Description:
The protein is an alpha/beta fold. It contains seven helices and eight strands. The protein has helices spanning about 5-20, 45-65, 80-90, 105-110, 130-135, 150, 155-165, and strands spanning about 5, 25-30, 70-75, 95-100, 115-120, 140, 145, 175. The chain has a four-stranded mixed sheet, sandwiched between helices. Helix 2 packs parallel to helix 7 (about 155-165).
Amino acid sequence: RIGLLPHRAYASILEHAIAEKGEIESIGLVTQPFKKEIARSFDAKQVTLDKSRAIAEDLKRHLQHKFPSAVIKIHNGENETPFRSFARLIKAKKVSICGSSTFCTYPVLSVLDGLGFVYITERHSPWARKLAGVLPNIRAYLVPRLANNFTAKLDISQILYWLRTQDPQGDYVINREPL
């Protein structure tokens, strides 16, 4: 719950993973439920859920355009418990990506067969960059993010514009060595 990353950041990470692990056949997006009845209490405001749905669906469209042969699914239904989400992240065959979030850091660092990409942040995971230099399948990355304190003030069209137009190429860092 600390921010959003540009759509192109996810696509760039997936391209990096393809170069190392081969073609990706399926992409799963793990996100909070969009139904108020099953959402976490602090996420259960309808405006937050509506924004989350629009963002997830927009990212899915972007990735489907970039990776047309991949099957892309959003995983957040009633049966998608936090433990099942953790299992999806840990058992990813090719790549597991943790965006700017505290929810996914540990499962992605525990990825079994795939590559794990963890967002670098001093506040929530300052040690992730060190682990990227120690664990052979873990990568740390840094791209611009749209912090939650800004997203609360923006309407969905402004958020989607930012997510679609930011090109993190110049700021994009993936490393295996401690920074």
